Amino acid sequence: MDPYEYKTSRIDRNTGMLYPDLAEARVCPLCGSPESRKLFVKEGFRFVSCEKCGMVYTGFRAKEDRHEKEEYSEKLRNKDHEAALSADSPKKIRLERLLRKIEKRFGGRKDLRILDIGSGSGISFYFASRKGYSDFYAVDINPGAVEVARERFGARAFLGDLREHGLESGFFDVVIMDNVLEHLNDPCSTLEEAARVLNEKGMLFVSVPNIDSFIIRALGKNHRFFNGFGHLNYFTPKTLAKLSSACGLTPYSVETAVEEMTVSRLFNLMAKRNLIDYDIGSIEYHESKKAPGASSVDKKRESAVKTAAKRACAPIDAVLVLITNLMRRGAYIDAVFVKKQ
Ligand SMILES: [Zn+2]
Fold it and tell me: What's the number of CA atoms in the CB half-sphere (13 Å) around residue 187?
């Protein structure tokens, strides 16, 4: 079943909402208050803001479907890696930035124990192993993904909920939760467990979409982040920091990342969707595109134009990144937390 069919089969056409027997009511995941104000309805879900603390979340969640999970994990095996490893993948940029922080904090030590919660097929280990780290631990709810993390990166991999595996307190130097907290019904219980298994010098890296970003402010509820089937919690830098301190942690750094907003990225996306031609003004190129067997030439030109565009856009991108970061309005929040002393 494709995602569109999956969604529409669960929404009552008369009410426009999820069928009541599939919906489980939620309270504020940050302060526990049941009092909320409706923001909007989208694709069967009510999006609300907590009256007490301002946290944005879905008023209920959909009961899970095992079949869909299995399908998802199958997809992960095939597609996840290629997309994340491409040169301008947000995940790559994010993880490389994190690895620089780890290097700084631990003075280049390579014997660090690294746990990835919601690891997927272990892409973070790919980047970490290139920097010389090798002691990896993975937790994920997808059996297929956990298997890949184990096979490709030699990770000790656990299936399901982290809390069920009785890990030793203070065991880890680094814990990664990359785009995980927005999916959890009770994000605090997982943060508390992450804090428990972290050692005194340890770093917890959390990345989540930022609903206070320029891009979401511009697109509003139309932004793809607002997807009740996948995302239950919607953070701003403020509510993420609040949640962490309610769950045994202290912010070490809270930044936003701009990947989706850069001009060169926008150019690439438009070109990918054929909104811009890579070789504007060249008749020859248009002709050769149609000719069979011309793809290798096209690829070469394509990459040359891409590089030139990137170079030309670099100064604009730099200014954009600076402004967006100063205002903390990037598309993602990248935060590092440490144990509350
Ligand atoms: Zn609240």
Answer: 31
Burial 88-104 (b: 16+ CB within 10 A, else e): eebbbbbbeebbebbbe
Taking the centre of ligand 1 as the mean of its atom positions, its distance from the CA of residue 308, in whole angstroms, is 48
Top mean-pLDDT range of 169-178, 209-218, 276-285: 169-178
Query: How far is it, in rounded angstroms, from Cα 211 to Cα 227?
Result: 13
Structure tokens at 30: 């940050």
Summary mean pLDDT of the chain: 85
**Ligand 1 center to 340 CA (angstroms):** 22
Ligand 1 centroid to residue 54 C-alpha, Å: 6
33-61 pLDDT tens trace? 999 999 999 999 999 999 999 999 999 99
The Å distance, Cα 51 to ligand 1 centre, comes to 7
d(CA 264, CA 279): 15
Q: What is the mean pLDDT of residues 291-304?
A: 61
Q: Which DSSP category does 67 fall into?
A: H
Question: Cα Rg for the chain, rounded, in angstroms?
Answer: 22
In the chain, % helix, strand, coil (3-state, to 5) comes to 45, 25, 30
| Model confidence, pTM | 0.83
User: Phi, psi (5° rounding) for residue 40?
Assistant: -165, 170
Token pair recorded at residue 145: 């993904």
C-alpha 112 to ligand 1 mean position (Å): 36
What residue has token string 């790919």? 126
Distance from C-alpha of 236 to C-alpha of 211, rounded to nearest angstrom: 6
